[in-house]
Amino acid sequence: MKILVCISKTPDTTSKISFTADGAKFNDAGISFIMNPYDEWYALVRACELVEKNGGTVTLINVGGADNDQTIRKGLAIGATDAVRIDAEPKSALFIAKQIAEYAKSQNYDIVFCGKESIDYNGSEVGAMVAEYLDQPFVSYASKLDINGNTATLERDIEGGVEILEVQTPFVVSAAKGMAEQRIPNMMGIMKAKSKPFQVVAPVEFPDLAVPVKFTLPKEKTGVKLVSPDDMDELVRLLHEEAKVI
Amino acid sequence: MILVFAEATSGHFKKAAFEAVTYGIQTANLLGSQCVALTLGKVENAGQLGVYGASKVYNVANEHLANFDSQVYAAVIAQAAEKLGATVVVLSHTSTGKSLLGRLAARLKAGSVAGVKSLPDVSGGGFKVNKGVYSGKAIATYEISSPIKLVSLAGNEIPLQSTGNEVAVESLDVTAPSSRVKVLDVKREEGIVPLPEAVTVVSAGRGMKGPENWGIVEDLAKALGATTACSRPVADADWRPHHEHVGQTGVAIRPNLYIAIGISGAIQHLAGVNQSKVIVVINKDPEAPFFKAADYGVVGDLFEVVPKLTEAVKKFKAS
Ligand SMILES: Cc1cc2nc3c(=O)[nH]c(=O)nc-3n(C[C@H](O)[C@H](O)[C@H](O)COP(=O)(O)OP(=O)(O)OC[C@H]3O[C@@H](n4cnc5c(N)ncnc54)[C@H](O)[C@@H]3O)c2cc1C
Ligand SMILES: Nc1ncnc2c1ncn2[C@@H]1O[C@H](COP(=O)(O)O)[C@@H](O)[C@H]1O
Predict the structure, then answer these.
(1) B152 and B242 assigned to the same domain
(2) Based on the domain organization, do B205 and B158 belong to the same domain?
(3) What CATH number is associated with residue B287?
(4) Can you say how many angstroms the Cα of residue B78 is from the centroid of all Cα atoms in its chain?
(5) Which pLDDT value is given to residue A219?
(6) Peptide bond into B147 cis (omega under 30)
(7) Which of the ligands is closest to the CA of residue B299?
(8) Which of A216, A228, A246 sits opposite B224 (nearest CB)?
C-alpha cells in the first residue's frame, strides 16, 4: 500500500507568540519549531503502522522552504520511507493543497493523511482541499482507522460523539487524537533517515487568494479579581451582575 | 448575494445555523446585498431561518444527502452558489463546516478563511475578516481577493438577532452525486450539550487527586447546566473520558463561562480555552499560572470551595 502523509512545521506548543512591530509578520526569533503534533503523533505514526503490517511505502510531503528540512528528516527518522518538499513559501491553504494534489495525482496513493489542523493556522482546510482536487472522499477528524484490503473503517469525531464509517481506497483522511500513540525516533531511525530519498520539487503556479495581512495579540486580561473562598455568594453575584454569564 | 449553508443535525437546526444566518444578513447589509439560506436533505421547519434574516430559504432534497458526506455536500453547495450567483458563502465552523470549507474553496477557486470571529471589513471594496491563529494566542486579519469569498463562522461569536419572519421554502434543482462513504453508525451521548457547543463549562485537573472525587465537579456542572471537561493528564490517566480533554491537543472551546478547578494553567491547556469569554480559576496555589489568564479567582482548597460554590449557585437559581 502506498501512503502519502502531509506534514507541516509549526512553532513549539510552549512558544510565546509575537509579531513584528508593524504586525505584518510572525516573529520567529527564539522560536523552536516542531512537526505539527497531529501530523506527527497521529497521521504519520498510523501510516507507519499500516505499512509495517501490510507492506508498502510512506512518503512525506511538505510545502515549504529549506528551513523545513529538519522537520522532514525527523519524519523519516520516525519511519517514513521517503520525502518530498515542494519548494515554496506556504502562504495560503489553497496554494498548499494545490501543490500537494499536483504531486499526488500521478502517484496513485491509497491513502493521503494529514493532521486535523495545523496548530499555527488552525484551519482544518488543507486536507479537504486536497481531497477535492483529487476527487476523493475525505474523512475528517478521524480518531481510528483500520484497513482490510481496500476497505477502511474509520471513527470520526463529531460534536458530542463519533461517527463510524466505511470507505474504499483511495481517500484522504485527517487524523485526530486517538489514532495512534506518539513515537520517539530512536538512534537507528535517525541514522537511517540521513540516507533516505529526499526530493525537492519546484511548485506549480497558483495564486494566494486568502492571506493574512495583519496580526494582533488578544487583549490582555486586566487582572484577576480575587474572591474569598468563604464567600461563594459573592462569586455568584459577580458572575451574574458583572460578568453576566449566569 | 450572500449564501448561508444552514446545517442541520438529524433534521434539526442548532444554534450554529442561526448564528450563520445572522452573520449572513449582517454581511449582506454591509455590502448592500441580500442573504439567502440553503438547507440540504430533510429539515424540519426550514422557514424559521427567515426569522434570523434569510430573505429566502432553498432546500435540496435528494436521497444522496441523507448522511453527511463532504464530497456530495460540497458538490451540491457549489452548484447552488453558482446557480444563485453567490459572492459570499457562509458556513458554520463545526465538524461539518470544517470538512466542507476546503472542498468548496477548491471547487469554486475561492479564497477561504476558517473560523472567522468578526464581520468583514469591506472598506475600499476589500474583504477582510479576523480569525484566531496560533491556537488562540493571536488574531490574524485575512484579506480574501477572489470574486467568491468563503468563510466559516466560529461558534458563540455573533449574538443571535431575530429581524424578520418565517419565509417560504423553495426547492432548488441541483444534482447530487452518490456518496462513496458509508455511515455504519453514529454514537452520540444523549442529554448533554457537546463541549464545542457548550455555553458553560466546568473543568477539572490533576488537583482532583483521583476519579472518585469527580462528584463535586458534576454537582457544580449540574447546578449550572454546564458541560464537564478536563485537562490532558486527567484524560490520559483515564480518570475521565477522552472527549472531555480540552487544550491544544484536545477540544478547543469558547464558552461564555469556563470554570477551571485544580488545573495549573499550562500554556497547552490555555491554548484550548483562552477564547472563553469569562474564566474562573479555583486553585490552592496563588502562584498557579492560570490566575494570569483568569477574570475571577478563588485561592483555596477545591474540596471545600467547590461544594460551597455549588450551594451558592443553587441558592441563586432558586431565588
Ligand atoms: C505537546 C503538548 C501538548 C499538550 N496538550 C495539552 C492539552 O491539550 N490540554 C492540557 O490540559 N494539557 C496539555 N498538555 C499538558 C500540559 O503541559 C500540562 O501538563 C497539563 O495541562 C497539566 O494538567 P493539570 O493542570 O491538570 O495538572 P497539574 O499541572 O499537576 O496542576 C494541578 C493543579 O491543581 C492544584 N491543586 C492541587 N490540589 C488542589 C486542591 N486541593 N485544591 C485546589 N487546587 C489544587 C495545584 O496547585 C496545581 O496548580 C500538553 C503538553 C504537551 C507537551
Ligand atoms: N505547508 C504544508 N505542507 C504540507 N502539509 C501541510 C502544510 N500545511 C498544512 N498541511 C497539512 O494540512 C493539515 C491541516 O492544516 P491546516 O489546514 O493549516 O489546519 C496539517 O495537519 C497538515 O497535515
Answers:
(1) no
(2) no
(3) 3.40.50.1220
(4) 23
(5) 87
(6) no
(7) 1
(8) A246
Q: How confident is the model at residue A160 (pLDDT cuts 50, 70, 90)?
A: confident
- In a shared domain, residues B68 and B163: yes
Interface of A with B in 9-38 (CB under 8 A): 11, 13-15, 17, 19, 37-38
What domain count does chain B have?
Answer: 2
β-partners of residue B257 are: B200, B278
Distance (Å, whole) CA B55 – CA B53: 6
DSSP calls for B251-295: B----SEEEEES----HHHHHHHTT-SEEEEEES-TT-GGGGG-S
**Encoded amino acid at B149, one letter:** K
What domains can be seen in chain A, in order of their start residue? 2-217 (3.40.50.620)
The alpha carbon of residue B221 is apart from the nearest alpha carbon of chain A, in Å, by 12
Report, as an integer, the average pLDDT of A100-114. 98
Cβ contact (<8 Å) for B187 and A164? Answer: yes
- For chain A, say whether B83 makes contact (Cβ under 8 Å): no
pLDDT digits (tens, 9 = 90+) for A172-204: 999 999 999 999 999 999 999 999 999 999 999
Ligand 2 atom at shortest distance from the alpha carbon of A127: 12
User: Cell triple for residue B49?
Assistant: 431561518
Asked if the C-beta of A240 comes within 8 angstroms of chain B's C-beta atoms, the answer is yes
Nearest chain B alpha carbon to A233: B312
Q: How far apart are CA B249 and CA B232, in angstroms?
A: 8
**pLDDT value at A220 more than 90:** no
- Considering Cα of B273, then B278, then B282, then B283, what sign does the dihedral take? positive
Q: Give a yes or no: residue B182 inside a domain.
A: no
- Cα separations in angstroms, B188 against A40, B121, B193, B228, B268: 28, 38, 11, 16, 27
Binary contact (A14, B268; C-beta < 8 A): yes
Q: Looking at the domain assignment, is residue B97 inside a domain?
A: yes
Choose the mutation target among A239, A240, A241, A242 for the interface with B, i.e. most B CBs under 10 Å.
A239
C-alpha atoms less than 13 angstroms from C-alpha of B89 in its C-beta half-sphere:
33
Chain B hits for A28, CB-CB cut-off 8 Å, are: none
B294 Cα to chain A: minimum distance (Å): 5
Please check whether residues B233 and B314 belong to one and the same domain: yes
What integer is the mean pLDDT of B21-43? 97
Residue B148 belongs to a domain with what CATH number? 3.40.50.620
The alpha-carbon gap from B162 to the nearest alpha carbon of chain A, in Å, equals 21
Is residue B277 located within the same domain as residue B199? yes
Instruction: Identify which of A98, A171, A224 has the shortest CB distance to residue B291.
Output: A224
Range of the domain at B126: 2-171
Mutate: best of A14, A120, A158, partner B, most B CBs <10 A: A158
Query: For the stretch A12-27, what's the b/e string if a residue is b when 16 or more beta carbons lie within 10 angstroms of its beta carbon?
Result: ebebebbbeeeeeebe
pTM, whole model, 2 decimals? Answer: 0.96
